[in-house]
Each structure stands twice: as structure tokens, then as C-alpha cells.
Design the sequence.
């Protein structure tokens, strides 16, 4: 089976090819079937790999399949190769499985859209690129996938391209991630320049062998890769594109901006963990960025009224948790949270999609209400997803992954108590904002009638993801509660274990940490209920006051980042472009032409047409020549 | 004998100066004739009587006469007045300077080397004739062709054709 | 013949040539310009005679004769052109023909 590894990314790309070539001429059911089936087959292929791996473990922890040599330029000979180890296997599974469910969902969700075939073409291209990204054996091929998902993100955000605002959002996403992409490319150049290879495993070996901790090149390389990850995963300071990316259709938001593309940054950091281990300052920076982002995004989510924007900020916040995990050295925990987050965030987005369709396109939660009774098919998934997001103790997948991160933040050698505090505050915020959405949209009295009920192709994915959001965490249970370490053990062959503190933390402290986390989760839900289910008079007063409204406004614009970027980057750049609108470089070329023209005018003045002038010219020339002859 | 050379040289220079500064064309031409005659005397003092004779007969006798005929034929009214307007002292600065520079350069070349008196050799017409028709016979033929071309050209250019259509260029 | 410094012949030629050139550049009337050219040609011929005298060769006078032929042909054509010019522009102003201006 491993011989057919290439089928996994190739099948969705083939689906894209078919859909692109037929260009909308296929009838909708067939186009949808092509799109979904290609991803489905890819998923089955991944399953086959699982089966094989369970019987025969991968040699050296990973299997490489070289497809062909890409180019030969003196001593630079990259190949197109696929590498699969346990980390890649988990990622592949998440990507194909969630993609398949979302494709199924989209079959019904995008039914009425004219760009149906185009949608599935782009989605297939995206899945293919994401799989390339995950399975790439060298950084060059990885970059192909990275760019591919960026392109598809742009295409899908701007899917309804008639709308200028959506186009702007698509461009914003592309340009902001481009900043990160450039940094990452430079990082790859530096790594190649100093270590001589782009093959990821080889690179990691050479780095570990040749570099010491704190080596300058390691710091530079990992910092630049971090730059790329920050861009793609929408972390501070490049998180501004993700909320606007909600302009795309809801399945796009579910797939790309929740479960897969935005996690690519987490993936690359995990892949190049050796570099980060060699640059502790950068690793600390990863953790700090994660912690800062999760707080900024958490507050921003509290100020949003649009249900999709709440979920967007929530995504930013949760990826901040993953960065936090990576930053303290809990690599496996970060990936674990990536997996559970994929499940419940996709679930939340899909449920939100059902709500939006039911409310005839309305996004504002304050214009919805009472959907608990009228739209049960969306209420229960959304509730389960919210519970998972809040890390409701014991019964949700989110609890186990988030709890693992928080514990490691406290107990790891690279961790710190203040990181833990930021994580806990973030957890409280999470419960608050998501249950604000739950209570406002689903409880209370109905403000709009439901006009559309979903059918089987939407309900099945919701069902499957709901189950996963509950049981998906049971592969990793903390010591007190059952001590299952299946996930970390599985990842051990690919990612190193977390380095713990010098003096181990007592189990009592551990227990208190977990109780605190659980209490914060439950407490935030109750607080949200108090505030939003039945409007408390104190809260009303605070909210309506000048200060309250100002704070809400500040949170609503994402804590002012767009404002800052507008003034520090966009306006000066536009002014510079305006100043240079005639292109100073062009002036060199037009300058040459103008100079020639000037000489022409000068010389044409010597042609007066007058006989005596010409005679004088001849005489003067003669005099000059004679002078030349005399003085030679 | 050298005195003849110096006197005729002075006359030549003076006559030439007067030629280029006259307002009336006929006066200038006559002065030019005088200059040419003086130069012919200079030729004679340099031992070239044949050249002196040619100068008088052809240059002063034919070419200048041709000039005079044409000027009289043109019959310009008030030529002197016009010339007076066109010629003023300021005009002389540039050309005068350039001529002086040229003159200076030539003189510089002349006095750069050692100056010693050379004898003047007499070259008679017989020697000239022999050289002309033995060594330079080809040049004679070509010169005659040149004169033929000049003749035909002058005839054609000076012709007034009858029945010329109006608006045609000359 | 008593020795004369033939160099003085070239001095004379130089002076005549300079005067001719000045006359060519200063005068606006075409006839005078042609006259100045004749002066210059004559001066050039004088140089040849001086050379022939100094080196005791007939070549100087031969060349003078050829220059004379040249001058004759040139004057003929030149005067014919002056006639045409006068017919066309009704004036002898050299500046009148300036249509080849750049």
C-alpha cells in the first residue's frame, strides 16, 4: 500500500483537473460527486495506510517515497518526494476525513449556487495542496503545497467575486499571508545555504549534528519559519486576515479557516522542531505569541455580533493554544489539540452554516433567537461543539487536549506559571464568548422564522463530527482519570516528549491545576448564562455606558490591529506609490530618450539653412584641423 | 629684382583688401583684376613666366571678364545701397578673428623650422610643356573633360526655356 | 636670379588666403562670395608656383595650370547658378535661400 502513497494527494488533484477542464458543463450532481468522491477515495487510501502501519510499523519511524527528480542545478537536486511518519499520518487523516465530511455537506449547502462546479474544483485543489504540504519530503515541495493552499484560500474567500468587499477580503488574506510566506522562503534559503539540503529529515539530522543550542543560523532559520507560520495560522501580528476571510462560503470557512490551512503553521513548526529546540529564545517567542494571540482573539470574539466572525476569532484563539503548546515543548499536545479542534471547530462552522441558511442569510446573532426549539438539528451540534471548545470537563474532546496543554504550560521546563495563567484566562474567555453566541442565538424568543431545514447530506456530517467532538479526546487521558497515553506514544516516533521541570510537580498540584481548569470552564458557562440568557441589570448598565460601548467597539474591530496597520503600513505605502506613480526607474529610460531629444534639438540648431553659416562651419573646422596638425 | 617682388606683393595685398570691402561689385571686380595682375608679376619674379602669362590671360582676362559680364547682366539696382546695409563693422569680428588664427597657424608652421635663403630657379615654358604632355597628359585629358562638363552645365543652367508651365521650379 | 626667400611667397599666399576667407564669411552677396573663393584659389596656386620655383621642377606650374582650369569651370557653373538664383529669389542675398533649415 505504501507504494501507492502518491495516490493520496493525486486523487483530489485529479478531481480538480476533471472539474477544471469540464468547466461547469457537468450537471451539478455529477460535479459534486466527482469532487466528493476524489476526497473520499483519498480518505480510503489513508485508511489503507493505517491498516498497513498497524501490521508493519514504519521503518526508521518514517517512509519516504521519491516520485521523481524535480531539477538538477549544480549541487541543488530537489526531488518530488513524499514522507510519511506518524505525525504526517495523523495530519493526513484529519485532513481527508474532515474534508470528506465537508465536501458531503457542501453537496447540499451549495446546491443553489451557480458556481457549483468551480467550488468543488477549488476545494479539490485545496485538499490536494494540503496533502502535498503534509506529506512533502523536502521543503521545496512543502512550499508548493503551502503556496497552493494560499492560492485556494484566496480563490475560495473571493468565491463570490461580484462582491467588491469579498474581493478585498480575499486580497487581504493573500497579501498578509504573503508576508509570512516571504519570511519562510528566506528561512528556507538560509537553511539550504548553511546545511546544504532541503530534505526535511536530513535537514533535521544535520542541524542536530552541526549546530549547538543558541546557534545564530538556527535562530534565524526558526524565526523566519515562525514568521511564515504566524502568517498562515493567523497569529499575532498577522491575524488580521482571518476574520475578514469569513466572506467566503461557510464550508470554506469550516475547511480552510478552521480545520486545515490555518493549522499548517502549527504543522511546520512541529516538523522542524529540531530547529526550534536549538533556538530556545525563538521557542519562547512561539509560546508568547500563542499566549498573546489567544487573549487578543478571545477579547475580540466577545465584541462580535456576526456568528462567523465569533468563530473566526475563536479559531485564532485556539491556534494560539497550539502555538503555546509548541512553545513550551509539548509537541504532541499541540498536535492533539489540532486534531480535536479540527473536529469541533468544523462542527461549529457547519452548524452555523445551517443556521445562516435557515435565517435566510442572516449572520447577526442578535437578530436570531429561540433556535433551540425551532432548529434542533443545528442546536445540538452547536451546543456540543461549544462545549468542546470550552473544554467542558470529562465529556468533551476539547477538555482533554486543552487540559494537556495547560498542564504542560505549567510543568514543562520551558513553561512558566504566567503562561498557564494566560491560558486559563483565555479558557474563561472562550466559554464566555461562545456561550454568549449560544444563549443569544439559540435561547430567548425567536426574532425570525426558520425558512429552510437541512437534509441528509448536511445532517450526517454534523452527526459524525458531534460524536468525534465527544469521544475524540479519549485517546489521551491524564493520570488521575485513567492515564491513557495512546496519542503521545503514537507521536513519540516523530515528536520528542515534553521536557519537564527539574523538580517534578506533585500530583496534588496537578490535581489542583485540573480542577481549576474545569472550574473555569464551567464557571464561564454559568457566567455567560447569567449575562446573556437573562440580561442582568448591572451588565445592561455597564454595556450601555460610554465606557462599555467603547470597550465593545474596541473588541469588535479586533483590538485595533486594522487601524494600526492602516496608519503605519497602508497609508504610507499608498502615499509612496502615489509619489512614484511615474516610476522613478522608468525615468532612467525616458530620461535617456529625453536626453537624446535634447541633443537633437541642440544639433538641429546648427542647421540654419544659411549659406554663410555653413561656410563659417567649414572654415572653423579647417582652422581647427590645421591647429591640430601644427601642434601635434 | 627682389624689390619687384615686394612691391607687387604689397599691391596684391592692398588690392585684395579693397576687393572684399567694396560696396559696388564692379569696383570690387576691377580691384580683383589688379590683384591678379600683381600676382602675375610675383610669378614672374619667382621664375615662372609661363604661369604669369597664364594668370594674365586666363584668370584676369577670361574669368574676371566673365564675372563682369554677368554682374552687368544682372543689372541690380542700387546694389551699393544694399551692400551698405548688409555690411557693418560688427560683422568683421568673427571672420576676422578666424582668418587671423588661420594666418597665425600657417606663419607658425613657416617659422618653426630654420629659415634660410633659397635660390629662385627659373622654369621655362618648354620645361612646363614637356612635363605637361609626358608625365601629366592624363591630367590634361581630365581637365579638358572637366571644362566640357562645365560648359554643358553652364549652358543648361543658364537657359531660359520657352513655354514653361507656371508653377514649375527653375 | 638673385636669391629671394621663397618663404615670403608663402607668406603672401597665406595673407591672400586669409583675406579671401574673411571676405567669404563676411559678405552676404553671392557674387562677392564667389569672388572671395577665386581669391582663395589664386592664393593656393601661388603656393604651388613657389614650390616649383624652390625645387626647380615644372610640376608646380603644371599644377597651377590645372587649378586654373578648375577655377574656370567652377566660375562658369557658379555664375550660371547665380543667374538662376537671381531669377528665383529676385535678390542676391545668400540668406534668402534658407529652406533647408533644420
Sequence:
Amino acid at each position: 500500500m505504501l507504494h501507492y502513497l502518491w495516490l493520496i494527494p493525486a486523487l483530489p488533484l485529479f478531481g480538480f483537473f476533471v472539474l477544471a477542464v469540464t468547466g461547469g458543463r457537468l450537471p451539478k450532481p455529477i460535479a459534486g460527486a466527482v469532487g466528493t468522491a476524489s476526497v473520499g477515495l483519498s480518505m480510503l487510501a489513508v485508511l489503507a495506510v493505517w491498516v498497513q502501519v498497524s501490521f508493519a510499523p514504519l521503518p526508521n519511524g518514517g517512509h519516504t517515497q521519491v516520485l521523481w527528480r524535480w531539477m538538477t542545478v549544480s549541487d541543488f537536486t530537489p526531488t518530488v518526494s513524499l514522507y510519511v511518519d506518524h505525525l504526517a499520518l495523523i495530519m493526513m487523516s484529519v485532513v481527508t476525513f474532515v474534508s470528506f465530511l465537508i465536501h458531503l455537506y457542501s453537496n447540499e449547502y451549495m446546491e443553489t449556487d451557480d458556481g457549483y462546479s468551480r467550488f468543488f474544483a477549488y476545494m479539490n485543489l485545496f485538499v490536494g495542496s494540503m496533502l502535498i504540504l503534509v506529506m512533502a519530503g523536502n521543503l521545496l515541495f512543502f512550499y508548493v503545497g503551502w503556496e497552493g493552499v494560499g492560492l485556494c484560500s484566496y480563490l475560495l474567500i473571493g468565491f463570490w467575486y461580484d462582491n467588491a468587499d469579498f474581493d478585498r477580503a480575499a486580497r487581504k488574506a493573500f497579501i498578509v499571508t504573503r508576508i509570512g510566506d516571504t519570511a519562510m522562503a528566506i528561512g528556507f534559503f538560509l537553511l539550504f545555504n548553511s546545511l546544504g539540503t532541503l530534505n526535511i529529515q536530513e535537514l533535521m539530522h544535520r542541524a542536530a549534528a552541526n549546530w549547538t543550542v543558541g546557534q545564530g543560523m538556527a535562530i534565524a532559520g526558526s524565526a523566519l519559519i515562525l514568521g511564515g507560520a504566524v502568517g498562515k495560522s493567523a497569529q499575532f501580528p498577522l491575524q488580521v486576515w482571518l476574520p475578514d476571510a469569513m466572506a467566503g462560503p461557510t464550508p470554506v470557512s469550516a475547511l480552510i479557516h478552521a480545520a486545515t490551512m490555518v493549522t499548517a503553521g502549527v504543522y511546520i513548526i512541529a516538523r522542524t522542531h529540531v530547529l526550534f529546540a536549538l533556538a530556545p529564545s525563538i521557542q519562547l517567542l512561539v509560546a508568547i505569541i500563542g499566549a498573546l494571540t489567544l487573549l487578543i482573539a478571545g477579547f475580540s470574539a466577545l465584541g462580535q455580533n456576526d456568528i462567523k466572525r465569533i468563530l473566526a476569532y475563536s479559531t485564532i484563539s485556539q491556534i494560539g493554544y497550539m502555538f503555546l503548546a509548541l512553545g513550551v515543548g509539548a509537541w504532541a499536545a499541540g498536535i492533539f489539540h489540532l486534531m480535536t479542534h479540527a473536529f469541533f471547530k468544523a462542527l461549529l462552522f457547519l452548524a452555523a452554516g445551517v443556521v445562516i441558511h435557515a435565517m435566510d442569510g442572516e449572520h447577526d446573532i442578535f437578530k436570531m433567537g429561540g433556535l433551540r426549539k425551532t432548529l434542533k438539528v443545528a442546536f445540538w451540534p452547536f451546543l456540543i461543539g461549544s462545549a468542546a471548545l470550552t473544554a467542558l470537563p470529562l465529556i468533551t474532546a476539547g477538555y482533554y487536549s486543552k487540559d494537556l496543554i495547560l498542564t504542560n504550560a505549567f510543568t514543562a521546563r520551558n513553561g512558566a506559571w504566567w503562561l498557564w495563567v494566560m491560558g486559563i484566562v483565555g479558557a474563561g474567555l472562550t466559554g464566555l464568548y461562545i456561550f454568549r453566541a449560544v444563549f443569544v442565538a439559540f435561547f430567548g424568543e425567536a426574532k425570525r422564522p426558520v425558512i429552510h431545514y437541512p437534509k441528509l447530506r448536511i445532517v450526517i456530517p454534523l452527526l459524525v463530527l458531534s460524536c468525534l467532538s465527544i469521544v475524540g479526546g479519549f485517546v489521551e487521558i491524564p493520570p488521575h482519570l485513567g492515564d491513557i497515553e495512546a496519542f503521545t506514544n503514537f507521536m513519540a516516533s516523530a515528536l520528542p516528549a515534553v521536557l519537564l521541570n527539574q523538580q517534578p510537580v506533585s500530583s496534588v498540584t496537578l490535581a489542583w491545576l485540573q480542577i481549576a481548569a474545569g472550574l473555569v470552564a464551567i464557571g464561564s458557562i454559568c457566567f455567560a448564562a447569567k449575562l446573556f440568557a437573562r440580561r442582568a441589570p448591572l451588565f445592561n448598565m455597564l454595556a450601555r455606558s460610554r465606557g462599555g460601548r467603547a470597550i465593545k467597539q474596541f473588541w469588535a474591530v479586533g483590538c485595533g490591529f486594522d487601524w494600526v496597520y492602516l496608519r503605519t503600513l497602508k497609508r504610507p505605502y499608498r502615499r509612496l506609490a502615489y509619489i512614484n506613480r511615474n516610476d522613478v526607474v522608468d525615468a532612467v529610460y525616458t530620461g535617456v530618450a529625453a536626453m537624446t531629444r535634447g541633443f537633437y534639438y541642440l544639433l538641429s540648431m546648427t542647421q540654419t539653412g544659411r549659406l554663410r553659416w555653413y561656410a563659417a562651419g567649414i572654415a572653423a573646422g579647417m582652422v581647427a584641423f590645421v591647429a591640430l596638425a601644427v601642434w601635434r | 629684382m627682389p624689390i619687384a617682388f615686394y612691391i607687387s606683393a604689397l599691391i596684391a595685398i592692398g588690392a585684395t583688401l579693397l576687393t572684399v570691402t567694396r560696396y559696388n561689385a564692379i569696383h570690387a571686380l576691377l580691384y580683383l583684376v589688379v590683384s591678379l595682375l600683381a600676382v602675375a608679376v610675383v610669378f614672374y619674379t619667382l621664375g615662372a613666366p609661363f604661369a604669369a602669362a597664364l594668370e594674365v590671360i586666363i584668370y584676369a582676362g577670361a574669368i574676371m571678364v566673365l564675372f563682369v559680364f554677368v554682374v552687368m547682366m544682372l543689372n541690380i539696382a542700387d546694389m551699393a545701397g544694399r551692400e551698405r546695409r548688409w555690411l557693418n563693422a560688427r560683422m568683421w569680428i568673427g571672420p576676422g578673428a578666424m582668418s587671423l588664427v588661420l594666418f597665425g597657424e600657417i606663419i607658425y608652421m613657416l617659422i618653426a623650422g630654420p629659415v634660410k635663403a633659397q635660390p629662385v630657379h627659373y622654369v621655362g615654358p618648354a620645361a612646363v610643356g614637356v612635363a605637361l604632355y609626358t608625365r601629366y597628359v592624363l591630367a590634361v585629358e581630365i581637365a579638358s573633360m572637366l571644362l566640357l562638363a562645365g560648359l554643358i552645365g553652364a549652358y543648361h543652367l543658364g537657359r531660359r526655356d520657352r513655354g514653361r508651365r507656371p508653377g514649375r521650379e527653375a | 636670379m638673385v636669391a629671394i626667400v621663397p618663404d615670403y611667397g608663402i607668406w603672401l599666399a597665406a595673407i591672400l588666403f586669409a583675406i579671401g576667407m574673411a571676405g567669404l564669411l563676411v559678405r552676404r552677396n553671392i557674387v562677392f562670395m564667389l569672388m572671395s573663393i577665386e581669391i582663395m584659389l589664386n592664393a593656393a596656386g601661388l603656393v604651388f608656383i613657389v614650390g616649383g620655383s624652390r625645387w626647380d621642377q615644372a610640376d608646380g606650374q603644371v599644377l597651377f595650370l590645372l587649378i586654373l582650369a578648375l577655377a574656370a569651370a567652377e566660375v562658369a557653373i557658379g555664375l550660371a547658378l547665380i543667374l538662376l538664383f537671381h531669377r528665383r529669389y529676385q535678390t542676391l542675398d545668400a540668406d534668402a535661400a534658407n529652406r533647408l533649415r533644420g
User: Anything to note?
Assistant: The radius of gyration of chain B is 21 Å. Helices of chain B lie at 2-21, 25-45, 49-74, 79-86, 93-112, 125-134, 137-158.
